[in-house]
Structures are given as C-alpha cells and as structure tokens.
Amino acid sequence: RTCRRSCLKIFLFFISLISSSLLFSAGEYRCGSIECDAFQANVSDKASLQRGLSTYMNYCYGCHSLKYSRYKRVAEDLLIPLDIYENNLIFDGSKIGELMEISLTKKDAIDWLGAYPPDLTLEARLRRPDWIYTYLRNYYPDSTRPYGVNNKVYQNVNMPHVLEDLETNLSKSEYDQVIYDLTNFMTYVADPSAEQRKRIGTYVLLFLVIFTAFAYLTYREFKKDLK
Predict the structure, then answer these.
(1) CA angle 192, 197, 199 (to 5 degrees)
(2) HSE of 74, CA atoms in CB hemisphere, 13 A
(3) Whole-structure pTM value
(4) Rounded Cα–Cα distance for residues 62 and 139 (Å)
(5) What integer is the mean pLDDT of 16-45?
(6) Are strands 99-100 and 139-141 parallel, antiparallel or unpaired?
C-alpha cells in the first residue's frame, strides 16, 4: 500500500508539471499596448543562433554588452571555431576567454546618448523572448522623437531603430527572419545551459519512471510472499 501511494504521488507530480507547462504556454501576454507576436525559440538551431549572434555583434554590441557571457563559451556552444570567432566577431582587441563587455564608458554614453544602455545578457529572462521579438518588429516613424522613430511596445523609448537599414532593404519575411534569429540568440544567451538541463531532466524522468515500475513489481513479489 505504501509503494502504491508513492507511485500515485509521483504520477500526480508528473501530471501537475505537464499541466502547468501547458497552461503557461497557452497564456496570453501583452507587449505594451499591443498583443505579443507569436514566437517560439529553438536554441538547438545552431545556424539560427549563429546568424543571431552576427546580427547582435554588428548592430547591438556597440552599446549593449553581454557581460555575463564569455566569447569562448558562446563560440563553443554555437559550434564556431575559436579563431574564426576571434577574427570576425571581436572588434575591440578582447581575448577569446574574456567576458563580453563593451568599450563604451558610462560617462561617454551619458554625454552622447543621455543614458547608459543596459546590459542585455538576461533580457530574454527579464522581458520574455516574445516581448523582444515583438518590440524589434514594431518601430514606426515619429518626427516628434529625437531619433525620428517610436515603438508600439515601448512608447517613447530612447533607443534608435538600429536595424532600420535592414528593414528597409530586406523583404518582410527576410527581416522577420533576422529578428527571429536575433531573438533566438538572446534567448540562448540568457540561459545557455537550458538545453543541457532539459536533456538531463529527460534522463532523470525516464529513470524515475523505470525505477517506479521496477519498485512496483518488486512490491508485488514481496506481497505474494506475505500472503
């Protein structure tokens, strides 16, 4: 009876985990005053992450650091040879093993931009990936703003539309792919161990299921002997 209760508790625990996950994914979120665009990250897609990294380093990294990540860790996770990464994606002489900090100082940032741009390492965990995806796709012209643009998600934001040239020169589907890859990369960099944890978690759950099954069978055999 004790073993049966334990099996039941484990089964109910699994059901609660699955139910919570489904409810969370089915939830509706808003991004500012508009609904969030649909976005589903795929951090196992190395090609997407590599493209997103390239976009980030060329368009975002001048102002926004990733100071909780290291160049080497990102290169290895994204299957980029270290020499290629160092020669093509490090622009300030930093070493491959260093943290991804920018050379822009707070004083210069305040003098030039009026504020110091935040580090974005954990932005996807703070804001959610769908918020970032929606935000980057919803700039619009606004002559009253200092940079001539505004954003439907974050009204009166001080950040310029740094991807405007891409949006102008690419088709809508191509630009959406750029934004997807960039957001996908930011999702990865906010939690680089996520895939490994999921993989280990799967093995742990399989072990628990198998162990529970054998424990129950053992219990039945012992029960026969007690009769």
Answers:
(1) 115
(2) 31
(3) 0.77
(4) 20
(5) 73
(6) unpaired
* Cα dihedral 151, 153, 159, 161 in deg (nearest 10): -50
Report residue 123 as tokens. 């932005």
Residue 13, CB half-sphere, CA atoms under 13 Å: how many? Answer: 9
pLDDT of residue 35: 94
The answer to whether residues 89 and 82 touch, using CB atoms and an 8 Å cutoff, is no
SS3 151: strand
Q: What is the pLDDT of residues 159-199, one digit of tens each?
A: 999 999 999 999 999 999 999 999 999 999 999 987 766 66
Instruction: Select from 131, 133, 138 the least CA-distant residue to 164.
Output: 138
For residue 128, give the amino acid letter: R
In 86-147, the DSSP E strands lie at: 99-100, 139-141
